[in-house]
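TICKET: design request
STATUS: open
ATTACHED STRUCTURE:
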């Protein structure tokens, strides 16, 4: 999972770097050739995009730095944490769902990703398989039982098996 996230961030950084150093300078150059820059929408738009691209690149670089600090070896092998794949049974209606806990930037709802910072993510942190948890949602409290848990260390084969 960490490698996938790093790869995605690096791909986006490469794309933004190309845009910043190749595409946008060409757009700005063409806009300058047109003359009066005070009323040139293409020029203003390119400068705004340039600012956005720089800010996004800075953000992605910080995220890569944060990922480098994650020590998978120190993560508990039997408790919900970053990267854990968790199957939950809703104790009120019996429905099951499987989610993976990720950082907010890496959420993919279609893939079943849930942010660590979300109410469900917060409510599950540190819980063990078979444990019941109560999660405070905007619509009220929900009760879940963790029916299956695969932590990030287990996914990476670091669980001593």
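STATUS: resolved
RESOLUTION: sequence designed for all positions
ATTACHED SEQUENCE:
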């Amino acid at each position: 999972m960490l490698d996938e996230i790093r790869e995605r961030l690096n791909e986006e950084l490469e794309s933004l770097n190309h845009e910043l150093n190749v595409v946008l300078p060409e757009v700005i150059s063409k806009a300058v050739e047109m003359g009066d820059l005070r009323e040139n929408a293409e020029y203003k738009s390119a400068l705004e995009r340039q600012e956005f691209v720089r800010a996004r690149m800075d953000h992605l670089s910080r995220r890569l730095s944060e990922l480098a600090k994650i020590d998978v070896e120190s993560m508990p092998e039997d408790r919900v944490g970053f990267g854990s794949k968790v199957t939950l049974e809703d104790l009120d209606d019996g429905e099951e769902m499987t989610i993976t806990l990720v950082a907010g930037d890496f959420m993919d709802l279609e893939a079943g990703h849930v942010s660590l910072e979300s109410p469900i993510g917060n409510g599950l942190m540190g819980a063990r398989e078979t444990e019941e948890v109560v999660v405070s949602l905007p619509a009220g409290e929900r009760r879940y039982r963790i029916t299956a848990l695969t932590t990030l260390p287990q996914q990476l084969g670091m669980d001593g098996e």
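CLOSING REMARK: The mean pLDDT is 86. The longest helix spans residues 2-33.
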